[in-house]
Design goal:
This protein is mainly alpha-helical. It contains 10 helices and no strands.
Amino acid sequence: MPAGFLEFLAAAVVMELTPGPNMTWLVLLSARAGWRAGLQAVAGITSGLALMGGVAASGAAALIAAYPLVYETLRWAGVIFLLYLAFEAWVGEKAGAARDDKGRHFRRGFLVNILNPKAAAVFLVMIPAFAGTAGAGWLIVMSTIYLAIATTAHALIAVFASNLQQIVVDPRREVIVRRILAILLGSVAIWFGLSTGRQA
């Protein structure tokens, strides 16, 4: 077992309980569309994280670290996508959109993560740092544990946030809650853009 294994577990839990793009968007989605939509998004988020883990394990993620232009492109694509989701939440989705396209929330959860440099950093920097010289086997084990922690945290967020549906049944309250959450999501997008910039 790597010397920093327990510290890794603590860091993983803290990271997943810290508000960020996934948490804010999941709360917004689940409060409006219910826990089923939230869990569809969780499946997409988990798939995106798993892809990041696979890319990091293959060594291809080193390109992101080595080429600032690649990193910046991904970072700003993520910011723009989050701002788009905030705008959509503010104005409201088209009627029936969530019901007609069952894979929509999955795809968005997937995109939110593959465009998130912080998600890549977990697998490219944090997990290898904690694994140390323990070997590739522990790298895979720790990546799997992180995925399990992230998926559990996101699923719980989706289920608990779905209880807000009763609050937003009234159209007036729905607009108020939706726009408050849209402002929060937009704020997270701006914070995301500022906090993930690399120091020169």
